[in-house]
Amino acid sequence: MPRATFALCASVCLGLPALPASVSAAGVGGVTRISDREEQRSCDYATRQGSATERRSHAAACDRVRFSSARSLGQPPPVTYQNPVYDFSFPDPGVLQSGASDYYAYATGSGFPVLHSTDLVHWESLGEALPTRPSWVVPTGDSHPWAPSVLRSPSACPGTQSPGCYLLYYTGLSGLHSPATHCVAVAWSPTPAGPFNDLGPIQAAGGTVDGSGRPAGCGDDAGYSNIDPAPFVDSNGDSYLYLTANRRCDTPTTADCPLAPTISVVPLTGDLMRSVAPRTPLLAGTAGTWEHESGQPPKVENPWTEKRGSTYYLFYSGGDYRGAYGMGYATASSPTGPFARAPTNPILRQTADVLSPGGGSVTKGPGGGDWMVYHGRAGSYTAPRTLRIDPLLWQSDGSVTVAGPTTGPQPSSTQAVDTPAAPPPQLAPTPLTTRPTPDQINAALAADLTVIARHLRRLGIGNLVRRRGFMARALDALLAGTFSATLTGARRRPGGALRVVLAKGSRSVSRAGRYALRVKLTRRGKRLLLGDRLAKVALVIRFRDIFGRTATQRTSIELRK
Question: What is the tens place of the pLDDT at every residue in 495-528?
Fold first, then answer.
């Protein structure tokens, strides 16, 4: 069944003011929550190392995150939200949180679409996590790119010295095994936005396979066709991968086994890329309940694990995603069970306005409190599954509820308490009256200069001369200001150097809420660049914000002939 998950990034790739570094909170969520500083280091490394193609790809991904985060600079947080928060197809979301208020999201679909948000309410596309079809999946047709989720490892990526590694767990339809089977695979990237490098289906640490030649990510003699991976790191550092094994085999066989979806858990090695022990079945679908859609076998899938105190909460979806889907949970005192279903299931069920809600994951909101991030349809069972959020409320008796699915305007904050609090009043949005701080402006300008300098380096002297100028990459109008620039160089001559202006007439050109910096070369500048082959120039950018305050930033750019 098509699945999706999604994860997010932050202002760290931007060079915006970073929050204090925090230790990844193992065991607090379904995926490790990462700090802004860790993510900044990842972007810095990825844009300096690897092949030219890899550097360009990672630089573009980090730039897209920067642009997305910059839109929220100086803006008040949203007071309300209204579902869907992303009105395009984005099934089965799973969240990676970075810092206090940045998120990545990955979804089912070709290449695994990625979104970014700073508030869980406004989302922007970052492209695809795995744009190249993996070699192990079927070569043509639908490869079933389902249910990706991401975890950060503190170790370096394979074959690199990266400061940590982001691991993408995903589902694909294998073209290598018979009977046909789904497999859970892993890919890696030095940055959370990707692109990711595929390692194929997850292998056992000892390299063992089952009687049909399937590695651990694809199945075992007791069950196979694995989908919907969701990693979890416990408070003691042990790591696990929760998934659904679609087929159950009563005895080892090389023939087809019956469809009987069963949520299972696989312990992982320290590198988080291989299994260290066999799969443990946890929950199978129950006939005659909300997990059982008429005409289909009972189904439970898309697990997501949270730990609260000493209790493990296993959230999951049930029923058929093309029908009255829903979500429930089960609890245990151990990550490997046994798990007991909650008597209040399902905690998320369809309404007349929201059909097939499910495929959810849990994350902390920017203002605290937990949120269920899930998908739902509007109108019919063939409508797209769009992205939705609603508060997850922990009751004093240990039970859990979801305040949804909602459709109209809702308060965008919830409190991290053990009993549901009264909804905060819906206040009118606060206009932007507070001036951004000098540090915010300077950090934003420094980040913009990085983008402009990178663009100039790629143009080279030859292109600058032919064009008689350049248009720097479009920048987000962070503070609705205007840019101008001066480009200078040093003419080499006997006895010293003469500093000359290479370009003038520069200005910022507004383009639908973004600015492009246009710089025109002088005739003298053209001659100097062409004849003297100047290798270094100084770029000075002046910025004027909406409050009339000015700031100046300088950078030195190495150009190549």
Answer: 666 777 887 777 666 544 456 677 778 877 777 7
**Which range has highest mean pLDDT (42-56, 294-308, 406-420, 484-498)?**
294-308
The answer to whether residues 483 and 517 touch, using CB atoms and an 8 Å cutoff, is yes
Helices and strands, counts by H and E, the chain: 4, 35
416: number of Cβ within 10 Å? 12
Residue 355 neighbours by CB distance under 10 Å: 21
Strand partners, 539: 487, 555
Coil, helix or strand at residue 31: coil
List of long-range contacts for 175-178, beta carbons under 8 Å, 24+ apart: 175/136, 175/137, 175/138, 175/139, 176/136, 177/212, 177/213, 177/214, 177/218, 178/212
Q: Can you state the angle between helices 52-70 and 36-46, rounded to 10 degrees?
A: 140
For residue 5, what pLDDT is reported?
32
Q: Which burial class, exposed, middle or buried, applies to 505 when counting CB atoms under 10 A from its CB (0-12, 13-18, 19+)? A: exposed
Total count of residues recorded for the chain: 561
Give the whole-angstrom CA distance, residue 3 versus residue 178.
Answer: 23
What is the chain's percent helix, strand, coil content, to nearest 5? 15, 40, 45
Nearest to 365 by CA among 78, 46, 70, 48: 78
Estimate to the nearest angstrom the gap between the alpha carbon of 158 and the chain centroid: 20
Say whether 305 sits in a helix, a strand or coil.
Answer: strand
pLDDT band at 20 (very low <50, low <70, confident <90, very high): very low
The three-state secondary structure class of 63 is helix
Q: Say which residue, 141 or 1, is predicted with more confidence.
A: 141
Using CA atoms in the order 117, 89, 139, 172, what is the torsion angle rounded to 10 degrees? 70
* pLDDT given for residue 64 in this prediction: 75
C-alpha to C-alpha distance for 344 and 425, rounded to whole angstroms: 28
Three-state DSSP state, 68: helix
Instruction: Give the torsion through C-alpha atoms of 16, 30, 60, 446, to 10 deg.
Output: 10
* Among 435, 487, 428, 494, CA closest to 459: 487
Encoded amino acid at 305, one letter: T
Is 289 strand, coil or helix? coil
Alpha-carbon span 184 to 147, nearest angstrom:
10
Amino acid at 198: D
Asked whether the beta carbons of 413 and 396 are under 8 A apart, the reply is no
Residue 555, Cβ density class (10 Å: 0-12 exposed, 13-18 middle, ≥19 buried)? middle
Q: Report, in angstroms and rounded to the nearest whole number, the Rg of the chain calculated over CA atoms.
A: 26
Both tokens of residue 164? 């940590």
Q: Which amino acid is at 110?
A: S
CB 202 within 8 A of CB 215: yes
How far apart CA 425 and CA 429 sit, in angstroms, is 12
List the beta bridge partners of residue 538. Answer: 488, 556
Which phi and psi (to 5°) does residue 466 adopt? -65, -35
